[in-house]
Amino acid sequence: MAMRVLSVASEIYPLVKTGGLADVAGALPGALAGQGIGVRTLVPGYPAVLSRLGKAKPLRRYDALFGAPAAVLGAKLGELDLLVLDAPDFFAREGGPYGDAGGGEWPDNWKRFAALSRVGADMAAEGVKGWRPDLVHAHDWQAAMTAAYMRFGPAHAVPRVVTIHNLAFQGRFGADIFPQLGLPPEAWGVDGVEYYGGTGYLKAGLVSADAITTVSPTYADEIRSPMHGMGLDGLINGRADRLHGILNGVDTAIWDPAADPLIPRPFSARALGGRRASRRALETQFGLDRDDAPIFIIVSRLTWQKGMDMVMDAIDHLVGLGGKLALLGSGDHPLEGAFLAAADRHRGRVGARIGYDEPLSHLMQAGGDAILIPSRFEPCGLTQLYGLRYGCVPVVARVGGLADTVIDANEAAVGAGAATGIVFPPSDPLALHGAIARAIRLHAHRPTWQAMQRAGMRADFSWTHSAARYAELFRTLIQTGA
Fold first, then answer.
1. Which one of 70, 294, 355, 418 has the fewest beta carbons within 10 angstroms of its own beta carbon?
2. Shared domain check, 448 and 312
């Protein structure tokens, strides 16, 4: 019998997405199927999710889930096997998964994602319609309490894995909510959900997990330090024997330049000429001058973590050296305004779109020359992997998954034909300036640049290897009883 895994996630591509978590939750089940593992994913019933389900069967009902009626619906969407928590009081709202249209977080997020986690633990203990998981995989703070509910409830014997996609987001709330969580008194403490006098959802998940994974090996090492541990480095070091860094992969069925319906012409490592049509379309979309100057792209949240303040300070430098910039993203309002002002100041050389547009992001990867990712920390990053796959050379800070996936164009790597990008020290504005200048110089030497493009496109960052590592971890936990 195939292994049965319940994945619990707050977002999943293609139904709802704010970042890489959705891509992973959407792609990993298909990759694990190739390892003989069947995955059902429990997700919240946001309007965007329910509108895509069509006919969905109620598999379980709650008269009062945290005081509100709810049901678990079973549905299939393509290869995704979904369990959808239909709880209108919690999820039938306009705005994003975690906040309103103005960017403010929903004040009852503690209850919304405790409800999701509570249901995940119920699925682990009782299953639905003859199906019960052999293991539960919870993603980030929004689902991490699943592990705590399991540990302190009837599903305590079912192995539980918690994946950290970004340690900066921890789900911290006041101590006053603990009596409403439905956990036993012994769950309140250093070895439970208590965290610096409050309630910590991610902390509760990490201390309750049989295994902790991060989305890259380097990030697994980084979060053991005070600099990157975000206050949890002590806990993580205490559980280092259960910590595993497994690199994210790319869904090669969606991100494939040879068969991508979202770009003007297909291309491959052997035939890069097809990229020119995407380049011209990109220039048109962003109002950039039509010339042969290198186009840097950014597809990112506009935040301090992503180093976007350093990019703002480097724009005049980039343009002064002859480069162009196309930016797609949203985030901190001051940064959004600053990028729009830069586009107005450098018309024809800088273009900016505020928001997120999945089809446009494909065009940017296919038409851009280099993707700029100066993150101060980056658990894995997926945009650099998309860049590698599409011949859009990554220019990245040496952190987390960026360090694990991009080979710097130093003299030895260029000579060996192994270079795939440009890597520079993080949190250093002068290093970012130097990396931009180096990219422009390399771009001017077409044979070297094309060799980097082809080397990146040949690299295998599919889910095949990573799924095998997850499968090995899951089987070990089940065989050893965690």
1. 355
2. yes
Kindly state whether residues 312 and 391 are assigned to the same domain.
Answer: yes
Strand 198-200 to 172-173 pairing: antiparallel
Same domain, 341 and 443: yes
The whole-angstrom separation of Cα 319 and Cα 296 is 10
Residue 324 annotated in ligand binding: no
| 28 found inside a domain | yes
Q: Check if the beta carbon of residue 22 is closer than 8 Å to that of residue 11.
A: yes
pLDDT, tens digit, 9 for 90 and up, residues 19-47: 899 999 999 999 999 999 999 999 999 99
> How far is the CA of 336 from the CAs of 333, 342, 370, in angstroms?
5, 10, 21
> For a pLDDT cut of 90, what percent of the chain falls above it?
95
pTM to 2 decimal places: 0.94
Helix (H, G, I), strand (E, B) or coil at 101: coil
Please give the Cα distance from 264 to 260 (Å, whole number). 9
Which contacts qualify for 270-275: CB closer than 8 Å, 24 or more apart? 272/391, 272/450, 272/453, 272/454, 275/366, 275/367, 275/391
d(CA 38, CA 30): 9
Other CB atoms within a 10 A radius of the CB of residue 440 amount to 18
Q: How many angstroms separate the CA atoms of 375 and 289, rounded?
A: 28
Give the domain range for residue 343: 272-458
Question: Which element (helix H / strand E) includes 357?
Answer: none
> For the segment 310-342, what is each residue's pLDDT rounded down to a tens digit?
999 999 999 999 999 999 999 999 999 999 999
What is the separation of C-alpha 71 from the centre of its chain, rounded to a whole number of angstroms? Answer: 28
Q: Please indicate, yes or no, if residue 258 is contained in any of the structural domains.
A: no
